[in-house]
Specification:
The complex is a heterodimer of chains A (91) and B (194).
Chain A: H1 3-44, H2 59-63, H3 66-90
Helix pairs in contact in A: 1-3
Chain B: H1 5-29, H2 31-34, H3 38-41, H4 43-61, H5 66-91, H6 101-117, H7 126-141, H8 143-150, H9 155-173
Helix pairs in contact in B: 1-4, 1-9, 4-5, 5-6, 6-7, 6-8, 7-9, 8-9
Classes of the chains: A mainly alpha (91), B mainly alpha (194).
Chain lengths: 91, 194
């Protein structure tokens, strides 16, 4: 077997675990990224969280908290979907 | 006492965000790994079907105009169609990859309904802008499930389909009934709020 071919094969072998590792990182990182997006949104537009100033707000305004929804979706993904998915990827 | 229209949009945005995240992870890990745990296969189609079911009360209670009501009815039907077909595929009741064309049809009908039922121009107010932007996003997004039906292993088709849901979620979260868009608002739109 030529040295060039061996080098290419070794590069291919290295590529597969690296790609796998990137995918695992993506799956594990997606939830926290969404949580971060929700937190940044809450900081930039704090008036969209009526729970911070609840006085005089009606029921629906207190229920509708979009940045908190984004954080909750990120947490749900991180703790319900991501662990099993990352585990299956690593197997 | 009814919730405001934009609140309903934010709730649906949350549903679309969930679907987008599930689809983007499926695209990245691949269908084989995604399907290794059977419950995972039902997640996004189930959420899509549920959003379709929840669209019916929206159609029933938010009756500002006939065309508005017809548009919400159309969204309810196509969300349930796309979700139902994908549930059947996940269950193994439907086998052909061409059933994915239902998702393409759903996006096309949804986009068309958004554009048709918005009577104002792009910069009339934020809600008008978002209806136009959402309509064209969904119409362009319809290309991805179409591509996916003919090339089931296409990464571009899978991520494009997922991105359509994520962009839709962002646009829906931006919605406010009477608000400026890029500093503009029509005099006829009413007083801006929050």
């Amino acid at each position: 077997m030529s040295a060039e071919l061996v080098t290419e094969l070794k590069a291919g072998e290295r590529e597969a675990p690296r790609a796998l590792s990137l995918r695992v990182r993506f799956v594990r990182g997606l939830g926290p990224l969404v949580v971060l997006a929700g937190i940044v949104w809450a900081v930039v537009q704090p008036y969209r969280i009526t729970l911070l100033h609840p006085h005089g707000q009606g029921f629906w305004w207190l229920l509708a908290e979009p940045p908190i929804y984004v954080v909750l979706v990120g947490l749900l993904f991180r703790f319900v979907v991501a662990p099993g998915l990352a585990e299956d990827l690593e197997e | 006492m009814m919730p405001r229209a934009e609140m309903v949009h934010w709730w649906f945005a949350t549903g679309f965000l969930i679907i987008g995240l599930l689809l983007v992870s499926e695209a990245v890990v691949g269908t084989e790994v995604w399907g290794r745990r059977p419950w995972r296969r039902y997640l996004w189609p189930g959420t899509c079907f549920l959003l379709g079911v929840l669209m019916w009360p929206v159609m029933t209670f938010f009756t500002n105009s006939t065309i508005h009501m017809a548009a919400h009815g159309a969204w309810a039907q196509v969300l349930m169609l796309a979700g139902g077909v994908e549930l059947a595929r996940a269950r193994g009741k439907l086998h052909s990859q061409y059933w994915r064309l239902c998702s393409s049809l759903a996006l096309l009908v949804s986009g068309g309904a958004l554009l048709v039922h918005e009577q104002q121009h792009w910069l009339f107010a934020r809600s008008a802008f978002l209806h136009h932007a959402l309509g064209w996003t969904l119409i362009v997004g319809a290309v991805f499930p179409l591509l996916h039906a003919f090339r089931p292993r296409s990464f571009v088709a899978a991520t494009g389909f997922a991105t359509t849901f994520l962009v839709t979620a962002v646009l829906l979260y931006c919605d406010r009934d009477t608000a400026q868009i890029f500093g503009y608002i029509s005099r006829n739109a009413g007083y801006p709020h929050r």
